[in-house]
Design brief:
By secondary structure, this protein is an all-alpha fold. It has one domain. It contains 4 helices and no strands. The longest helix is centred in the middle third of the chain and has 18 residues. It is elongated. The termini are far apart.
C-alpha cells in the first residue's frame, strides 16, 4: 500500500466509509452513475483497509466465525496442547 493511499484511509470518516461500502455493494455512486471496474476495485480496497484499522474482525466484511472445534477456534486453542509434527 503506498503512502498516499494509507493517508487517505487514515483520514476516512465513517460516513465516507459507508458511502464507499454502499457503492461497492450496489455497483453505483449515490448519484446513480455506475462504477467502473477500477473504481469498484479501489473502493473495495479502501473498505477492507478501513475495516482492518477501525473494526474488530467479527465486524469486517467477509468475516466467517470459526466453527467449534476448528483449529482457528480460540476455545480449542486454549484447551489443546501443542503436538510435535510427526514425519513419516
Amino acid at each position: 500500500m503506498n503512502d498516499n493511499f494509507q493517508q487517505v484511509i487514515n483520514n476516512l470518516t465513517p460516513d465516507v466509509y459507508q458511502n464507499l461500502k454502499r457503492a461497492v455493494e450496489l455497483g453505483k455512486w449515490p448519484d446513480g452513475k455506475v462504477l467502473t471496474q477500477e473504481q469498484r476495485d479501489t473502493c473495495m480496497q479502501a473498505v477492507i483497509a478501513y475495516e482492518h484499522i477501525h473494526l474488530p474482525p467479527e465486524e469486517q466484511v467477509g468475516y466467517i466465525p470459526p466453527k467449534p472445534g476448528d483449529a482457528c477456534d480460540d476455545e480449542t486453542k486454549q484447551n489443546s496442547s501443542e503436538q510435535p509434527l510427526k514425519w513419516k
